[in-house]
Amino acid sequence: MSLIKLFRGKNIPTQSSKAEPPTSDGQLFEATGSDPFETIGQTQNWNLLPSDSLIMVMGVTGSGKSYFINQLRPNSAAEGHGLQSETKVCQIVRTNIGATTVAMIDTPGFDDEEIDDAETLGIITRLLTTQFRLGIRLKGIIYLHRINDTRFSGSARRFLKVFQEVCGENAIPNIALVTTMWSKSPHQIYLQRDVQLQNNWWAQLISKGALIFQYDGSRAMAETIVGQLFRERDVVLKIQHQLSNEHHLLEQTSAGALVSSEIEERLTILDEEVRSIADDITEANKSGNREKAHQLNIQLQEQSSRRERQAMAREELKQDIDSDTGSEIERAVETKKSKGERWESRLQVFEAVVGQLIPPRATKTTDLEVLNCK
Ligand SMILES: Nc1nc2c(ncn2[C@@H]2O[C@H](COP(=O)(O)OP(=O)(O)OP(=O)(O)O)[C@@H](O)[C@H]2O)c(=O)[nH]1
Ligand SMILES: [Mg+2]
Q: What are phi and psi of 350, to 5 degrees?
């Protein structure tokens, strides 16, 4: 299958360039404000290593995120088949693309359990904030979507909305919209579906410069997609700006507010249902219908526990992720200092804060490392 790349609403990038990261509203601003890394970096005398660049891989559950990363680094990420996200944590896979080193981040997917959206957003955001605070370069986001899905599902819709709010308009040129599972295809139907995607759901992103790829499942094309993003300037996402420069809580960010309002809606419905069942139980008890009262009590327990889970999800969004991340970075620095040691790269600190390094598997490829995020 041939690689299709469209460049709309912007010039075709021809060479690597470094530029100030844009804000979500088009202003330029300091990438890290009072850059904690600069201060820590000076005292630690760190070197800036070329490996300190990240690419996020995102998409709903089963869209092929782990598969994509496994093409770049065989057997590094857990692939799955279920409706619930196989990848419950972020995983970082370091790999070389030609002469360039890049850390790929496998993120948990938004799945059919809406309840997990807040947790998933929290995990992704924590990682993005750590990357931003450490001054690690973010080169782009790969957004995966299954071309064999017959419709744009509820989770795909929710994810797309949140995704757009996480990224913001100025990050759009750093987004690669990638359709997967072409090899499983009746090709003609999938080509039509791809056109529909581009003309409807993705039209806005494409008109503002997002890249498009039909992924054939190969390592070669995975490298091409990553290489293309690497040519883009470094990017600061809207949610990073809102958390770290505007000091918002997660629920105050545009993406967090979106998830939060969905939780509130569900809470209102559940409250109403719980009230109604409780009334029915009173009625059943009054009329001496013990069997009905018993059944209703079971229903009440189920709805109450659903309500509790929603309420807990709402709490997830109240986190001050930027401040928490700052404290964790400081703790990591202090711990190292107390041992009389020094950090050797930003990614090492990143690992210390967001997860633990999984040793590379026995493989001939020596340039790969995998980190698992908390
Ligand atoms: N043929 C083919 N199979 C794929 C492709 N991408 C993923 N798969 C398969 O589809 C299934 C789901 O892929 P995963 O990579 O686990 O999906 P994921 O997005 O990581 O899912 P979660 O971690 O659950 O969010 C796995 O069995 C993969 O082997 C592709 O491009 N082509
Ligand atoms: Mg996965």
A: -55, -45
Q: Going residue by residue through the chain, which has 374 residues, state the pLDDT in tens, using 9 for 90 and above.
A: 333 333 332 332 322 333 333 333 333 233 333 444 444 444 444 444 445 789 999 998 889 999 999 999 888 887 875 555 555 677 888 887 777 778 899 888 877 566 578 888 998 999 999 999 888 889 999 999 999 888 888 888 888 999 999 999 999 999 999 999 987 666 788 889 999 999 999 999 999 999 999 999 999 999 999 999 988 899 999 999 999 999 999 999 999 999 999 999 999 999 999 999 999 999 999 999 999 999 999 999 999 999 999 999 899 899 899 999 999 888 888 888 899 887 777 888 887 888 643 333 333 333 344 544 44
- Regarding whether 187 and 57 lie in a shared domain, the answer is yes
Give residues (CB < 6 A) around ligand 1: 59, 61-67, 79-81, 85-87, 108-109, 180-181, 183-184, 215, 217
Q: Does the residue 201 lie in any domain? A: yes
Range of the domain at 285: 251-316
Ligand 1 mean position to 208 CA, how many Å?
28
List, in sequence order, the alpha helices (H) in the chain: 36-44, 65-72, 117-133, 154-167, 187-199, 203-207, 219-230, 238-240, 254-286, 290-316, 321-338, 346-354
